[in-house]
Structure formats: structure tokens, C-alpha cells
Specification:
Elements lengths: L2 E2 L38 E2 L7 E10 L4 E7 L4 E6 L3 E5 L5 E5 L6 E7 L4 E6 L3 E6 L6 E8 L4 E5 L6 E6 L4 E5 L4 E7 L1 H4 L11 E6 L6 E6 L3 E6 L4 E7 L4 E6 L5 E6 L4 E5 L8 E3 L17 E7 L8 E6 L11 E6 L2 E6 L4 E8 L10 E8 L3 E5 L21 E8 L5 H10 L27 E7 L3 E6 L6 E7 L12 H7 L7 E7 L4 E6 L3 E8 L3 E3 L2 E5 L40 H5 L12 E3 L2 E10 L12 E5 L4 E5 L3 E6 L4 E7 H5 L47 H5 L4 E9 L9 E8 L3 E8 L4 H6 L3 E2 L4 E4 L4 E8 L9 E2 L18 E2 L3 H8 L3 E7 L2 E7 L3 E7 L6 E9 L2 E8 L3 E6 L17 E6 L6 H6 L1 E3 L3 E7 L2 E8 H5 L1 H4 L17 H5 L9 H5 L1 H4 L7 E5 L4 H6 L3 H48 L8
Main location: membrane
Subcellular location: Cell membrane; Cytoplasm
Family: Belongs to the WD repeat L(2)GL family.
């Protein structure tokens, strides 16, 4: 623990002026404050660089651009491959793992080693990978890179260690899964087809072993050629040449017939007794035309042929096959069961589907119970056990992208009661009609970790919807959905053109979210320059929505020289200088006048019934001015204790009292400075028929017909051309208990305003403390001209007390305004950390203000406004996100930079100091390359939260959560789910004692004897290259699941061995009994026949 001692013995009463003429940090208009008395300061360091580490935790959402699907019927784990090289593994709720191929090559096919805890992936770069799933974070054990041939299809028989690999050239290679070495056994395409065939059969599109005989391999070529290859004899048993291209093949479990799907939308059935022609060809969706021909149909991309014990009819399930003449029809999955044909229409194209069956053995009755369907933008499972084929309710958050995500917010350590309340409200609006059975993907194990606290993620979407998600314990579950578009009237045909000039497709898209979990007040900013304020209620209500309009428009003009102002009165024109709200102008017939003084959207002005949940109370909209749409809102803050809402854009700032439904302040950014504008800029209105009015910045009616005070200012020509041309946007806002002037002795409610030019303004406010007075008396907002300066655009404010603790903003405790009245308990506003006495005790000696911009961080001491420390975060790039967050029982400043760096700056040691001492050094704790900033989606959605966590949208459909806490990285293994659980492999169906004991299946097949190096030799080294993974098989198994997992596996292995020994003992006893019976009968026959002559038999 280090201790820093510093004495502040020379704080000046005013800050020096920079050479450029602009004041430095701390300059302000008004009376300079006296310097604080020197006193000794002791600070203990608690945060070290060892406390920080960047690590991905979990990925939520639908895998972006999926390509492949696989299922382990014993472990009940499903895998999805993607075009970017990702693999998503899904089991029971909580078991959700994401893996990534470093090459980024698309995943072509997935093959589970059933009940072995391993997965084979075939990628578009012609590489096979073996993943070890016996650990919480899967890793690659082996890779095999094909150099001369392209992989098109793979097949791994159940309980086999030999993988069949088909290639684009039509050859079939065999890979040993254990060593990942290519066998010398190769089935060449020219040997598979007849020598008389003149054309190449095309790439291999199907490989499967016969259910009846594992020594027979069925090879399907794209051209329509099918070959049954005898692996022992190394020759073809039969060849089929069909006119139509083949897309897939599926066996009947008895191994006597199989079904093919073709490019003309037909299904062909083949019997092994007669392969000269198919014994059945059907066009499931092709109708017979008048001329007797079948109408042309789309290809059937995949077919599955499954049998069931409960029905003599088999299930035939396929995708595609619709007729071409039905344009506009959605993609379909067809289920044929007997004479019934059920067509399930999908919202998106089908990528792949799998029929989930009870048994892993292909030569047994399959017993299908569900169909897993992978769509381009969705994943669903259909229940086959019910006649109406309902879908299962998906426990994974696969619908994050239901409408494109436009913004995110992450709240850790929320009030514990908020999640159950939101869930109970959201459960009333859930869809119905799902299957009543449990989710069939039940593999893996997951338990809630020891470090859990309520977490909520809020996503805003392009259609104006808001979704609340329960993110506790690295899971994600939908809680509640809110549609902001219901606040507005549906646009009429004549209004579409006006809205289209501002936004083309999504007028309700969400830009910003502001939520106070304690008061449950929720506020959103939309792309149509509107703000909606919601209150939470457990009861429905019939109410009207208050609408306020704000005229926030300002024009920058050339600077007026001193000669121009010698005889000009020093008045500001409120109609031009100040973007204040104006009453609607009289209507005229010109299009511009119709557009002007109107918002982009029309709020419903009638009584509306609002269901329980978040209910809209107030809408604030910016108006059209001079035929131009309003500029989008760039900043927002809300404080429930003050009852105030502030919003800003590139033209200025507006402050709204949402309790009294009035606009308190509406001014351009330049007017906020008063005479303290560092650049001495000036705006001038084209209208000259109005003069300014002085008074309090408060509106007089809910229609926002208010007039604000404007400030006279000295006129100067010292501003540069860049300053004249650049609008100064309000980039961040924060309400806080602070000091608006240097002379203040006690903190008062203030609004901190940060701009795009790196300037910080502090606006003090006078708010009545009595509840009745608060509802009736005006709130006074008086800009003082206090200015602080930083480099680049201001991003974030935070406040620390002299003890080094974060000062939270005051808030109002939630109360249900629509609850039935209780005469014994009058409903009053209960405010937390708002009373003057508590403020005096906590901050009477001053506090620290942490200000972070896109390039710089500064710590100011308030009220003296002395800049205690400056840290230049970056010079060549800029900070995208900055926040002051709690981690390891302390606080730090976290920044996400445009170059992909994440930096954390020590706060309690460096930033949290008493008011008399300057800080030592803001030494960086962490500076690590995390990811390249190639997608602006990441920049738009990245956000930090407390507890060492952050998130961002890594693709249009997926959300990635990360941690920057070393403690959470260490505990991550405990929080993640286990993908592999030791399960005994189900036994094959009993075929009878005599048939099983004496080897009823004569077609026994030893693949090792046939494919091993001794028999087949070595493959050419130039054909494929073996690449070792991150660790050997033994090392990976040792690190797989810890001691508990190993003991469980050992126990099950012992149980299996004991069971097998028991079975062997039973068989031995049966053999002995049979032998004794045979001996007895033989002895009886001998005694009976020993005295007979040969001719007597």
C-alpha cells in the first residue's frame, strides 16, 4: 500500500489564461473564490494492475449467418456453425458456449463424436478440426489441412474412429479421429464409377454406411450417380445413374431401401434388390398439369426418412420442393406421415434441419420426437409427438435481432425486486400455443455461481421497441417488451413525405436510453428528435399523454466586427438567438409554413388505456424550423429527485420539468455561456422585430409557450473561421448536487453540460423542497457562465466525495401512482440523498468532479474549480465510451478507445482526494489491444457497467459480454456450464440370446484392420498436413472437468465394467447350463441307442 502526501499551499483565486486567448480550466464569470486551507492528505492505493484482465464471458443471441447443424442424441447437445467460423454449442438453459476458428473460415459441416465429448468441424479452407468438449471452454486438439482437394462432405459412423471425407474431385478419404492422420485407403472416383462412363460424376454430396452392413459405404455424387462401395472387397456392389442431381440421401433403418431428394423437387425410393430404377418417384408439391406433365418444382435440399414403433407409417421430412409458379411463398418444411402432408411455413430461408431421434443406432427403429430447424435468422424445434406439430418455447434469447438493435444499456447490481416485477408483467404478454413438453436440448449441467447479483440489459430497436433482459449469472432471459410507437398516431399518407425527409424507414428507432432503476422512471430518445418519459405501474390506467414541443434551432452567422456594433443596443433576439419554444404560427398555404412549428410525429391526443408496466406520461418533440427538420438529440439526462429532464443537440439545450409539464430552459449553446464564452462567438437572428425579455427560465404553460432570458455579451471578432462554421453540440448532460459558482459554500442541484468543443458549463438550479411547493412554484434555472475546458468532445461526468467514494445522484423512491388510494398512508414523494442537511454533511467540504472527453481526463476540485490533475488518454485516436465504474470494492475510470484499446485509470488513489490536495499521478492500470474497430456497431453499442463487466453487439444478431475484472476471470470456469456429462451409451436392441451369442450378424466389420497403416499404408504427405492443437489428448483430458469430472467418469467406467462382467458371468452360467443339458440329453440318447443295430435306426 502506497501513501501519497501532498500539501496545497498555493491555490490561486483565478486561473491563468492560455496563450491562445482562451481561458484555462477553472475560469468562470463571477466573484473568485478563496483558496482552501492547506491540509495533509493521506491516500491508500487499493486498485492495482493485477486487478484487471480482459476476457470474453458469454455470447447471447442468434448465431450470425449460420451454415451447419449437428446434434448428439446421447448428450443432447446441439451445435451450430457460422459463415465467420464460429461454433455455438447449446444444451439446457445456462449451457451456452461459443467457439471460434482462428482462421475465420466458414463452417461447412459438423460431426459429433456421439457421447465422446468431441466435435469435428469441416471448414471452407479445407481444414478439419477436432474440438474437445470435455472442458468448459472447448479447445482444438487436432487439425488436418487438405492441400490438393476441397472438402464437400463428411460422415462419421456411430462408435467409429474413422471419418469418411468426400471431396470436390469425387474422391473419398478416411481420417483416423484419434491421431487425425489420413489413412492410405482411398476410394478414387474413377474406381467408384464404371470405366465406360465418360463424364465426371461431380463432387461427393453424400456418404453413409449401410445400416445392415457397416462394410458397405453409400456414396452420392452431385450428378445423380450413387455407388454402393464394398470396403472389404474394394469394389462397387452396384451403381445407380439417375437423371436428376442429388442433394441428400436417407436410409430406412432396416438397410434395404433408401430415399433421395433431387433438384427437380422429386423424391426417389430405391430398393437394394433392384437398383435398375427407383420403385417410387414422387413430387410432393408438384401437381399434374393438363398435358399430363408435372409442374416444375424447386429443389428438395434435404430429406430425412425415419420410422416409428407406434405407427406403421414412416416420417418423411424435407425442405423445399415447392412449385415455381407460386411466387412469394415463404420457405417451407414439409412433414409427410402416411397420407397426411403438413407444410410448415417459415419466416426465413431454411439453412439446415435435423430430426431428433431416441436412438443413436441407425439400424434400429428411430423413434423421431422433434425436428430442429435452423433458419437464416432464427432457430426453432418442432414437436413431432403431437398431431398439430407445435414448436417448443425457445429458452435461448434468439430474438435479440427481431428488430435491429440500435442501442444498448447495461445495469449491474439493480434493486432485487425489479426483475421479478418486470417478469410478472412481461409474462402476461407472452405468446401461447407452444408445446407443453420440456425443451429437448437438455444436455450439459449448469449451476448459478457464487457471485450473482441482479443484472439487467436493455436494448433499443429500429422499430421503436424496447426489450428488458435478465442478465443475472451470465444468462439472458427476456423480461419485458415495450413498444414506443404506440405513443404516436399512425402516419397518414400525406405525412409520410415529411417524415421521410428525416428518417427513411424507421421513424421510431431508439437512439438513447436513460433508466433510473430506483425510481423506475424510464426515458428514451428517438431518431425523430423525440423524447418519451415512462413511469412504471402495476395497474392499468386510462390517461392522456402530455406533449411538449421545443423549438431548438439556431443559425450561426458571421462574426460582427466592433464597427458594426458601436451604435447597436446590446440586446439578444430571443426568436433567433435562443431556440425557444414558440406558439404555432398561423397556417398558410405554403408547404414550409405547414411543416414549420410541427414535430415529425403526432402524439395521440385522446384518452388511452395503458396496460400494467411502463406507461407513457410525457413526450417532448423538437419542431421543424424554416423548412428544415430538427437535428437529432445527442444527449439526455433525467433526475427523478429533481423531477427534471434535460436534452441537447447540435443547436442547444432544453430543460423540462416533467412534474409540472413545462419547459424551463431552451437556449442555444452560445447563450449558455453569457459573457464567459471562451471564443467570444455571437449569433444573430434574421428577425429584428423582437427584443429580449429578462426573467426566470421557466415556461408558463404545458404548451411550452415560454420565453427565456438571454444574455448580452461583448462583441468580438477574435473567433476563428473554424469556430464560426462548427456547431457546438451538447454531447453529455448530468444532474448532480454540486457547486455552480466558486463562492458557493454548500452544494445545490446543478446541471453539468459538456459540449463537442470540450467545454463544460455548470448550471445551478433552485428547486422547491416542499412537495406542495414543488408542484406549484417555478423551478429557477440560472446559467452562471461557469466554464471548464478539456481537449475534444466531453463524454462523461462523475463526482467523488473527499473520502474517495462515488457520489450517486439523488433519486425518488418508486411509488405506484395508479395504485388504489390508502387514506391511512398518503402518497408522498420520498427522496433519497436530496435533503440539504445530508448534502452538507457529505459534501460540505467540497468534492471532486471527474470529467472525461474523447482525448483527455481531468479532475477538478469544487467549488474552487481548480484542476488537480490532467491525463491525456490519447493523442492519435479518440475515446468512444467512458464511464466511472465500481470494481473490486473501488472505483475506476474505464475508457473504450477507437483503436480498440480498453484503458482503466485508478480512481480511489489518484482521483479521490481531499479538497486541499492535488492528486499524484493517474497511472494507467491496463492498456490492452482487445479487438480491431472494424464495425461501427461495436462503437455504437459498447457500454460499461459495475462489477467489472461490459457488453457490445458483435454482429447484427449477437451480443458479446466481457469482463475486465481479474476476479471474475478467475471465477469464470465456475460460472460457465459443463458441455459434457458422463452418460452411459444406450445399448443396442436385444436380438435374442442365440442370435446375439452365436453372432447372428455375420457382417462383422473391423475398420482398424482395413484402414490401419498395416493394411492400407500411409497417405501421401502432400495430400494433407496435420496441425497439432493447443494441447495433446491426454493433457486436455486431464484439464477437462477437474477432479469431480474425472471421478465421475471413473465411477461410471467401473460401473460399466462391473455390468459387463456381470453380463459375462450370466452368459457363462447360461453356457454351463446349456452344456449340462446337452450332455444329459446326449447320455440319454447313448443309453437308448447303444444296444441297437445300425439297421434299426
Amino acid at each position: 500500500m502506497k501513501k501519497f502526501r501532498k500539501v496545497l499551499d498555493g491555490l490561486t483565486t483565478s486561473s491563468p489564461v492560455n496563450p491562445g486567448g482562451s481561458p484555462s480550466c477553472g475560469s468562470a464569470a463571477g466573484t473568485p473564490s478563496t483558496a482552501p486551507t492547506p491540509r495533509e492528505l493521506e491516500i491508500q492505493e487499493t486498485l492495482m494492475s493485477e486487478h484487471f484482465q480482459i476476457c470474453k464471458t458469454v455470447r447471447h443471441g442468434f448465431p450470425y449467418q449460420p451454415t451447419a447443424l449437428a446434434f448428439d442424441p446421447v448428450q443432447k447437445i446441439l451445435a451450430i456453425g457460422t459463415r465467420s467460423g464460429g461454433v455455438r454449442l447449446l444444451g439446457r438453459p445456462g449451457v451456452d458456449c461459443h467457439c471460434q476458428h482462428e482462421s475465420g473460415a466458414a463452417v461447412l459441416q459438423l460431426q459429433f463424436l456421439i457421447n465422446e465429448g468431441a466435435l469435428v468441424t469441416a471448414c471452407a479452407d479445407d481444414t478439419l478440426h477436432l474440438w474437445n468438449l470435455r472442458q468448459r471452454r472447448p479447445a482444438i486438439l487436432h487439425s488436418l489441412k487438405f492441400n490438393r482437394e476441397r472438402i464437400t462432405f463428411c460422415h462419421l459412423p456411430f462408435q467409429s474412429k474413422w471419418l469418411y471425407v468426400g471431396t470436390e474431385r469425387g474422391n473419398t478419404h478416411i481420417v483416423n479421429i484419434e491421431s487425425f492422420i489420413l489413412s492410405g485407403y482411398v476410394i478414387m472416383w474413377n474406381k467408384a464409377i464404371e470405366l465406360s462412363t465418360k463424364t465426371h460424376p461431380g463432387p461427393v454430396v453424400h456418404l453413409s454406411d449401410s445400416p445392415k452392413d457397416e462394410g458397405k459405404l453409400l456414396i452420392g455424387f452431385e450428378s445423380g450417380t450413387i455407388v454402393m462401395w464394398d470396403l472389404r472387397a474394394k469394389r462397387a456392389d452396384f451403381r445407380i445413374y439417375y437423371d436428376e442431381a442429388i442433394h441428400s440421401v436417407s436410409w430406412h433403418h432396416e438397410g434395404r431401401q433408401f430415399m433421395c431428394s433431387h433438384s427437380d423437387g422429386s423424391l426417389s425410393m430405391w430398393n437394394l434388390r433392384n437398383t435398375a430404377k427407383p420403385f417410387q418417384v414422387t413430387f410432393p408439391h408438384g401437381k399434374t398439369q393438363r398435358d399430363g406433365r408435372k409442374e416444375s418444382c424447386k429443389p428438395i435440399l434435404k430429406v430425412e426418412y425415419k420410422t416409428s414403433r407406434n405407427s406403421s407409417e414412416a416420417f418423411v421430412i424435407f425442405s423445399g420442393g415447392l412449385s415455381y409458379d407460386k411466387a412469394g411463398r415463404r420457405p417451407t418444411l414439409t412433414i409427410m406421415h402416411g397420407k397426411a402432408i403438413i407444410v410448415l411455413e417459415m419466416d426465413y430461408p431454411i439453412v439446415d434441419f435435423l430430426v431428433l431421434c431416441e436412438t443413436p443406432y441407425l439400424n434400429e427403429v428411430q423413434e423421431p420426437y422433434a425436428v430442429a430447424v435452423l433458419l437464416e435468422k432464427d432457430f426453432l424445434v418442432v414437436d413431432l409427438t403431437q398431431s398439430n406439430f407445435p414448436i417448443f418455447e425457445n429458452p435461448y434469447p434468439m430474438d435479440i435481432h427481431e428488430s435491429p438493435v440500435t442501442c444498448t444499456a447495461y445495469f449491474a447490481d439493480c434493486p432485487p425486486d425489479i426483475i421479478p416485477v418486470l417478469y410478472s408483467i412481461g409474462a402476461k404478454h407472452k405468446k401461447t400455443g407452444y408445446s407443453h413438453k420440456e425443451w429437448p436440448l437438455s444436455g450439459g449441467t449448469w449451476t448459478v455461481g457464487s457471485q450473482t447479483y441482479p443484472e439487467i440489459i436493455i436494448t433499443g430497436h429500429a422499430d421503436g421497441s424496447i426489450k428488458f433482459w435478465d442478465a443475472t449469472a451470465i444468462t439472458l432471459q427476456m423480461l419485458y417488451k415495450l413498444k414506443t410507437s404506440k405513443v404516436f398516431e399512425k402516419p397518414k399518407s400525406g405525412d409520410v413525405g415529411r417524415s421521410a425527409e428525416l428518417v427513411e424507414e424507421d421513424p421510431y428507432a431508439i437512439q438513447m436510453i436513460n433508466w433510473c432503476p430506483q425510481s423506475r422512471i424510464f426515458c428514451v430518445v428517438g431518431i425523430s428528435a423525440h423524447v418519451i418519459l415512462y413511469r412504471f405501474s402495476k395497474h392499468d390506467a386510462n390517461t392522456t399523454i402530455t406533449s411538449l414541443v421545443v423549438r431548438l434551432q439556431c443559425e450561426m452567422e458571421d462574426v460582427i466586427s466592433p464597427s458594426d456594433t458601436e451604435n447597436t443596443p446590446c440586446f439578444s433576439d430571443p426568436s433567433g438567438l435562443s431556440p425557444q419554444p414558440q406558439p404555432p404560427s398561423p397556417r398558410s398555404n405554403t408547404p414550409d409554413s405547414v411543416r414549420d412549428s410541427n414535430p415529425c410525429l403526432k402524439v395521440k391526443d385522446r384518452m388511452i388505456r395503458m396496460p400494467p408496466g411502463y406507461q407513457a406520461e410525457l413526450v417532448v418533440q423538437l419542431l421543424w424550423v424554416d423548412g428544415e427538420p430538427p437535428q437529432q438529440i445527442t444527449s439526455l439526462d433525467l433526475n427523478s429527485a429533481y423531477g427534471l429532464l434535460a436534452l441537447g443537440n447540435c443547436n442547444g439545450l432544453a430543460v423540462v420539468d416533467y412534474l409540472q409539464k413545462t419547459v424551463l430552459l431552451c437556449m442555444s449553446t452560445l447563450e449558455l455561456y453569457g459573457s464567459a464564452d471562451p471564443f467570444q462567438r455571437l449569433t444573430r437572428s434574421p428577425r429584428k422585430n423582437r427584443q429580449s425579455t429578462s426573467g426566470t427560465h421557466r415556461s408558463k404553460s404545458p404548451t411550452s409557450e415560454s420565453r427565456e432570458n438571454s444574455f448580452s455579451r461583448s462583441r468580438s471578432s477574435s473567433v476563428s473561421s473554424i469556430d464560426r462554421e462548427t456547431k457546438e453540440a451538447v454531447t453529455t448532460l448530468q444532474f448532480a448536487e454540486s457547486y455552480g459558482r466558486k463562492s458557493d459554500t454548500l452544494p445545490t442541484p446543478c446541471l453539468w453540460v459538456g459540449t463537442s468543443l470540450g467545454l463544460v458549463l455548470i448550471i445551478p438550479m433552485s428547486i422547491p423542497t416542499d412537495e406542495q411547493e414543488r408542484q406549484e412554484d417555478p423551478v429557477t434555472v440560472a446559467p452562471t457562465g461557469t466554464v471548464l475546458m478539456l481537449k475534444a468532445s466531453v463524454l462523461r461526468f462523475a463526482f467523488l466525495d473527499c473520502g474517495g467514494a462515488l457520489i450517486n445522484s439523488p433519486y425518488e423512491v418508486w411509488r405506484d401512482q395508479h395504485a388504489p388510494d390508502d387514506p391511512d398512508r398518503p402518497r408522498k414523494r420520498k427522496l433519497v440523498n436530496f435533503s440539504p442537511s445530508s448534502s452538507q454533511e457529505a459534501s460540505g467540504d467540497g468534492h471532486l468532479a471527474v470529467v472525461c472527453s474523447e482525448r483527455q481526463a481531468k479532475v477538478f476540485f469544487m467549488p474552487s474549480q481548480a484542476c488537480l490533475y490532467v491525463h491525456n488518454i490519447t493523442e492519435s485516436s479518440f475515446v468512444l465510451r467512458a464511464d466511472v465504474v465500481s470494481v473490486c470494492n473501488s472505483v475506476c475510470l474505464a475508457c473504450f478507445c477507437a483503436n480498440g484499446h480498453i484503458m482503466t485509470l485508478r480512481d480511489p488513489v489518484i482521483l479521490y482526494v481531499c479538497m486541499f490536495y492535488s492528486l499524484p499521478s493517474l497511472r494507467p492500470l491496463l492498456d490492452v489491444n482487445y479487438l480491431p474497430l472494424t464495425d461501427m456497431r461495436i462503437a455504437r453499442t459498447f457500454c460499461f457497467t459495475n462489477g467489472g463487466q461490459a457488453l457490445y453487439l458483435c454482429s447484427p444478431t449477437e451480443m458479446q459480454r466481457i469482463t475486465y475484472s481479474q476476479e471474475m476471470c478467475d471465477n469464470l470456469q465456475e460460472m460457465l456450464g459443463e458441455l459434457f456429462t458422463p452418460i452411459e451409451t444406450p445399448e443396442a436392441q436385444n436380438r435374442g440370446f442365440l442370435k446375439g451369442f452365436f453372432g447372428g450378424n455375420a457382417q462383422t466389420f473391423d475398420r482398424e484392420e482395413l484402414f490401419g497403416e498395416a493394411a492400407a499404408g500411409k497417405a501421401s504427405r502432400s495430400l494433407a498436413q496435420h496441425i497439432p492443437g493447443q494441447g495433446g489428448m491426454e493433457g486436455m483430458k486431464a484439464a477437462a472437468g477437474g477432479v469431480v469430472g474425472e471421478l465421475a467418469r471413473a465411477r461410471i467406467a467401473l460401473d460399466e465394467r462391473g455390468q459387463r462382467l456381470g453380463e459375462l458371468e450370466e452368459r457363462t452360467a447360461l453356457m454351463m447350463t446349456s452344456a449340462e443339458t446337452f450332455s444329459k440329453h446326449a447320455h440319454e440318447v447313448m443309453l437308448k441307442c447303444k444296444d441297437k443295430k445300425w439297421y434299426q435306426f
